[in-house]
Amino acid sequence: MKALRSCLVCLASCCETHLKPHLTASRLKRHRLTDPVENLEGRMCTIHDKPLELFCKTDQTCVCMLCLVLDHKSHKVILLKEQLEERKKSDLGRRETKIHPMIQETRLKIEELKRLAKLSKEAAEREMADDAQVFTALIQFLERVY
C-alpha cells in the first residue's frame, strides 16, 4: 500500500493502517512524522542519529540540531526547507536563463516559416492565375478552331 507518512524515529514509511498507532499511542505520538520518503536513513545524521533538519551554508551540508550546537555554532545555518526553496528558485532562474534564448530562436524560426509560407502562397496564387489565363486562352483557341 502507498505510504502516507514516514517516521524519522522508527525509520519506516507507513500506510494508513500502520500509521494509526503513531496517531493513537501516546508513546508513538511523540515520533516525528514527515511526508513519505524513500531513503529515510539518508535523512538521518550519521553521527548523532537525529533528523537532518538544517542546512549549514558555511560548510554546504545538512546538519541535525546536535551538529548545530556542537560543531556549527558560529556558522550560518537555515532550515533545510528554506535551502530547498532557495535551490529551487536558483535552478529555476538558471533554467529560465538557458531557455529564454531558445524561445527567442524558436520565435524567429516561426516568423521565418510564416514569411516563407506567405511567399509560397503568393507564388502558388500567381501560378494558378497564370494557369487560368493559359487555360482560358486554350479554350478560346479551341472554340475558334471548332
Comma- or semicolon-separated keywords:
3-stranded antiparallel beta sheet, about 150 residues, Double Stranded RNA Binding Domain, 4 helices, 2 domains, about 60% helix
Explain this structure to me?
The protein has about 150 residues and is mainly alpha-helical. The chain has two domains: about 40 residues, no CATH class; about 100 residues, 2-Layer Sandwich (Double Stranded RNA Binding Domain), CATH 3.30.160. The protein is about 60% helix and about 10% strand. The termini are far apart.
In short:
The protein is mostly helical and 146 residues long. The chain contains four helices and six strands, in the order ββααβββαβα. It has helices at residues 16-24, 26-29, 65-71, 80-145; strands at 5-7, 12-14, 33-34, 54-56, 61-63, 77-79.
Shape: elongated
* Residues in helix, %: 55-70%
Spatial ordering of strands, largest sheet: 2-1-3
Estimated structural class? mainly alpha
How many distinct domains?
2
N- and C-termini, Cα separation: 88 Å
Number of alpha- plus pi-helical segments: 4
Order of SSEs: EEHHEEEHEH
Number of strands: 6
CATH class of the largest domain: Alpha Beta
Helices and strands, with pairings:
Elements: E1 5-7, E2 12-14, H1 16-24, H2 26-29, E3 33-34, E4 54-56, E5 61-63, H3 65-71, E6 77-79, H4 80-145
Antiparallel strand pairs: 1-2, 1-3, 4-5, 4-6
